[in-house]
């Protein structure tokens, strides 16, 4: 076994060619990897940790883990793998918040992207780009991007987020990056100015909408298949100091849907709509995770007598925010909020609101969910999550077939349901979305808790829900399929053809992101 990394006189580090475990790697690959001159290092120890992800469903350890210190390290590794081995694969890994082993490389090499750091905030742009931007390494977490931007360019921040910020820049840009700002700004992949990418051929390429644009759009939402994102330039825009964070309840799905769609249709008018629009299905019971007690900012603000007596097994929650600066505090702000809420048809006694800093709002899942779950030892449990995009024309059917029918009593995690505007998605990017102007993100974020339904039963439910979703022309987000035919169906004929062509162009040996289970390198 390798006994560590040797430091060369010039400060570079390399592994001892003869110390890699020959039983795992082919000899020739072993030698090629051993000859690599790296600024970071390659480790054959403790590779098991690199196979752990948030899902806790799959666990396929790699043979080695690269901790790169430069883009050249990443390129050199891929070139060595391409030239010396016929079966090794490489997976870039962020914090591993995938559900189904997407960032794993069975007996291959995992690149821990977090070892390459760097966030550069450019509030006035640079010679190439007049727009303000932040440039971050692919392994940086969004929470650090937010903190750095607010610190170095007060009043500016990226405009499109995910609900949870401890995800990596390269990880979400390989999928889409969706949250309550998507209706107005599009997903995170619609807000990227430029990428630095290492392709599956080991080439380092700077790409943007005007430079090497085919690679740029292939990589955005490309499930890691075409290149490893080592840097991304992200648009930054004015950000508020504070947000008014509001939660309003509904008992009628049609009314809830109509209000959500009305709000997102007014996206360009800040006087008519909010900055953030999401929705949830809430169980009509006292479950602390997703019953009605979970709705107010303090559970004692709600009692059973406040709920409509004729409500069905589920209720709906609209979550909205309005950003403001401290100088705006006063009657004008209050009048504005009142005016914006007036056309909505939520149950008037079931509206809850609080004011928090912009950072605290964006980081809410860490504070409200991760910290609490960890304290209760409920964070490190299997997470068989299912994310879908459902066309607006089918969402009512989805409500009656699934929300109301499948889970009448206990669910074990939140269910998200909120609409987005398709014209905010760039059709040149690789993410697959339904062919309809408005579609809903529907997320079943169920945790296999010791007290609740087991993993197998949740996976069975997921398969049933996915099948209904597909019949209703929906698409899986953060997709996971086993068979090639399923991938073809997911992409549709034209998008699949383009996806395969891009694979041939940018990763012809199918080295990258094997955990997505789309292409296979000599299994
Ligand atoms: P990983 O799991 O490490 O990797 C995911 C995939 O991307 C793998 O195939 C990997 O090989 C590839 N990859 C990783 N880094 C790179 C890179 N630099 N270049 C190329 N490919 C790379 N998603 C949303 O859209 N909205 C949400 O609100 C949201 N909330 C979430 C909340 C939680 C608690 C969790 C666990 C996940 C959430 N997600 C959300 C899903 C998240 O976007 C995905 O898990 C995504 O994969 C990012 O996770 P990661 O950075 O850990 O990537």
From TrEMBL:
The cofactors named for this UniProt entry are:
FAD
State the UniProt keywords alphabetically.
FAD, Flavoprotein, Oxidoreductase, Signal
Gene3D superfamilies reported for this sequence:
3.30.465.10, FAD-linked oxidases, C-terminal domain (3.40.462.10), Uridine Diphospho-n-acetylenolpyruvylglucosamine Reductase, domain 2 (3.30.43.10)
Q: Which InterPro entries match?
A: Cytok_DH_C_sf, Cytokinin_DH_FAD/cytokin-bd, FAD-bd_PCMH, FAD-bd_PCMH-like_sf, FAD-bd_PCMH_sub1, FAD-bd_PCMH_sub2, FAD-linked_Oxase-like_C, FAD-linked_Oxidoreductases_BP
Q: Per its UniProt entry, which superkingdom is the organism in? A: Eukaryota
Q: What is its EC number?
A: 1.5.99.12
FAD-binding PCMH-type domain residues are 58-239
The family assignment reads: Belongs to the oxygen-dependent FAD-linked oxidoreductase family.
PANTHER family documented for this protein: CYTOKININ DEHYDROGENASE 6, GULONOLACTONE OXIDASE
Descriptive protein name = cytokinin dehydrogenase
Q: Which organism is it from?
A: Sphagnum troendelagicum
